[in-house]
Amino acid sequence: MSAHAFDAAEAERIVADEMAQARAFYGEDAGGAAPLLPILHAMQEAFGHIPAHAQPLIASRLNISQAEVRGVVSFYHDFRAAPAGRHVLKLCRAEACQARGCERVAAHLERAHALAPGATTADGSLTLESVYCLGDCALGPAALLDDRLIGRIDEARVDELVLEARR
Ligand code: FES
Q1: From the CB of residue 52, how many other CB atoms can be counted at a distance below 10 Å?
Q2: What interhelical angle do 8-26 and 54-62 show, nearest 10?
Q3: Is the CB of 139 under 6 A from ligand 1?
Q4: Taking a C-beta distance cutoff of 8 angstroms, is the pair 78, 44 a contact?
Q5: Which site from 81, 83, 109, 129 is most exposed, i.e. has the minimal number of CB atoms within 10 Å?
Q6: CA-CA distances (angstroms) from residue 68 to 10, 33, 37?
Q7: d(Cα 32, Cα 14) in Å, to the nearest integer?
Q8: 94 CA: nearest ligand 1 atom
Q9: Of 89, 90, 91, 97, which is best to mutate to test ligand 1, by the most ligand atoms within 8 angstroms of its C-beta?
Q10: DSSP letter (8 states) at residue 152
Q11: Residues 6+ apart with CB under 8 A from 9
């Protein structure tokens, strides 16, 4: 991902491109919120998060409310309202990993490292996210550090990962 700072002209271009694609695909039905998800994905790809300044722009171009845009951004775990740290740790919180102790690991991250889901360490090195199944249920609790899948994660292993991310 080539994330960079918010650029209003680029945000306008993304909205216009995605609206044109939605019109080409849906024809008359492309109004309102139809292009919203593709726009949000393209914004996150471009800026690394959904910039707060982009949300009123999206709402006005799509003729929907800002609350609708905010609601979609906060509903989908994939969208970030703030830039992520240099590394991202995704901890699986789905049922099989819960049965294997992921909630203990999540509680430890919060207690020992002040890392709640969605939070980033003060030094900007690591963002924690919750995800719901990484396809590694048999080796749960499972996590992803950036693109690396890690199974059987516990408190000691997660401490090592936090240290590794801070190096
Ligand atoms: S439930 Fe955690 S990897 Fe599937």
Answers
A1: 12
A2: 30
A3: no
A4: yes
A5: 81
A6: 22, 9, 12
A7: 16
A8: 1
A9: 97
A10: S
A11: none
pLDDT truncated to tens, each residue of the chain (167 aa)?
445 677 889 999 999 999 988 888 887 766 778 899 999 999 999 998 999 889 999 999 999 999 999 999 988 878 888 888 999 999 999 999 999 999 999 999 999 999 999 889 989 999 999 999 999 999 999 999 999 999 999 999 999 999 999 98
Residues in contact with 21: Cβ distance below 8 Å, sequence separation at least 6, in sequence order: 35, 38
Write out the two tokens for 47.
Answer: 């800026």
Angle, CA 55 vertex, CA 10 and CA 114 arms, to 5°: 105
Beta bridge mates, 120: 127
Among positive and negative, which fits the CA dihedral 21, 27, 32, 37?
negative
**Greatest extent of the chain over all pairs of C-alpha atoms, in Å:** 56
* Stretch (H or E) spanning 147: none
Half-sphere exposure of 108 (CA within 13 A, CB side): 16
Domains and CATH numbers, the chain: 8-75 (no CATH), 87-166 (3.40.30.10)
Whether 85 lines ligand 1, by a CB cut-off of 6 Å, is no
Cβ of 18 closer than 6 Å to ligand 1, yes or no, is no
